[in-house]
Description:
Layout: H1 5-11, H2 46-56, H3 60-72, H4 80-93, H5 97-109, H6 114-130, H7 134-141, H8 150-166, H9 170-177, H10 185-200, H11 204-216, H12 222-241, H13 245-253, H14 262-275, H15 279-290, H16 297-313, H17 316-345, H18 348-356, H19 378-384, H20 387-439, H21 443-463, H22 472-487, H23 496-623, H24 630-639
Helix pairs in contact: 2-3, 3-4, 4-5, 5-6, 6-7, 6-8, 7-8, 8-9, 8-10, 9-10, 10-11, 10-12, 11-12, 12-13, 12-14, 13-14, 14-15, 14-16, 15-16, 16-17, 16-23, 17-23, 17-24, 20-23, 21-23, 22-23, 23-24
Amino acid sequence: MRLSPRHRLTLRRLAAVLWAAQAVFSATALAAASSASEPAHEIKDPHYGDALFHFFQDHYFTSVTNLMVSQHFDRVAHHTEEAEVLRGGLLLSYGLEREAGQIFSQLIAQGAAPPVRDRAWFYLAKIRFQRGYLAPAQEALSHVGDQLSPELQEDRVLLQSNLLMARADYASAVRLLEGVDGKLQSARYARFNLGVALIKSGDPSRGMAVLNELGLATAGTEELRSLRDRADLALGFAALSEQQPQAARTYFERVRLQGLQSNKALLGLGWAAQALHQPELALGPWTELAQREVSDSAALEAQIAIPFAYTELGAHGQALAHYQKAIATFTRESSALDESIAAIRSGTLLDALLARNPGAEMGWFWQMRELPEFPHANHLAQLLAQHEFQEAFKNYRDLRYLEKNLDDWRDKLSVFDDMLETRRKAFALRLPQVRARASEIDLSALRTRRAAVVAEVAQGEEAADGVAFADAKQLELLARVASVRAVVADSDPELLPARERLRLAAGALNWQLAQDFPQRLWAANKELQAIADQLEQAHRSDAALAQAQRDEPLRFEAFARRIAALDPLLQSLTARLAALSQQQQVALQEIAVDELVRQKERLAGYSTQARFALAQLYDRANEQTPEQPQGKQDAQHAAKP
């Protein structure tokens, strides 16, 4: 069995990467860079090929269970190291990073090649970082040597910088990232991290210069355009913090209006105009933002930023109306959040997410692609965007799949019972019949007969005249020659020609027998050996039958005990999984609810600000006189009951 170049390339990417949907496990390519010219990877053990087959079908749970069974029975002897790497990657894809780490550590301790070692530790560090295990990720990354490919080396630097920045060690992150000067796409992320780290470390001018390079760079893909928007957004807020509102406006205006960062950019653009004492220019972006989905925090802030700008312009009546509108919006959104929280606590959200996004065996590659019905679908975007929620939901999905899997196995136990009972009955029914047929064959008599034939062949071989191996026709001719010889034995001269013909015929017959002698002797010995082998096989079968008569009932009892022992084990595991699923469901719901509660708290804060500002407007309106400006008269008029 030989793998195609496409599959060889697939095998060369350890599934622990988990950063791209097309990345798959590297069962062999941890040891070498992929190359289209290298020899095909030969699969020598069929059971290892079976695990790979299920893997390529995206049946990761089936693949890892079949692989572990094959390893238990030593069925993958030709792929011991590759199978372990594959198992570690599969376990890692299900989030079992400790078990995967133990596998990789054992491989390294057994003398794995440096490229295998470095890639294993690198991928382990990456998945630990993804799951939020910062200290273990740093520990794994410290084991990586200098045998990574150039692409992975840049990824390593980026991962190290993320770990440093997560610990707020921005100065070390700057020193690390300043040496990155690659042309790969990952280098742009390194430059972005460098710009942020410089700003955080107290060097905003250099940091803003780095980010500005990214903000002006060409971007041919959506991913790079999104990164460019992030750079411009970071530049804008950094400029605001440095009291550079005019520069901030320039940076915010470079962000795409329909991009992922557009809401924050519109909000920042308004505050930049406000910092320039141009509230009339702030109304444009804030009005656009206020018309967007209010589940976004920037859109919520715009609801009270607009009346603030009107207040600055002296348009108190319009400010009053917008504050009242903002309070009404906040009240409606708060009620909507309460409904969403109730729906989440009921468990319907999680069940609907599972139902709309099947793919139980997909491991860490599985992604949510379809949203379920929900009272307020706009709240789902905020939930599903959370890394914590995504990771917790994957764990919940895996627990639910294992519950289903255990239920299936429990159902199969009854099938195994039926199969075992059927085999018992079939054995009890067929054994007497087989023994009766076996008793009809007398192996001792057959051996005696063979011994006699062997003696005859030996005598014929010793005589070497070929008569012992003559066929029926030749024996008939020999008999006729003998009878004719008796007739022509008389010395009558008239029989002389007949005697001469008889002599010639007898000579021809003897010559033919002599010619056929070697071949017939070889054929006879061959047939005797075949008979001996068959007698030996019959003897072994008879012994095996006798052994089976003794052992099979014991094997049936052993199977029955194993089946009986599995039932309480499965029940115990099912109960544990049910409890864990319930705990994970509660934890997952709390993660979702906490996010919505934080939104409610933001709403409460914005609502308090709006009400306080509204009260101030009422107070100002009550203090105004008719001679005051028309805008304030409008506010006083609007404030009247």
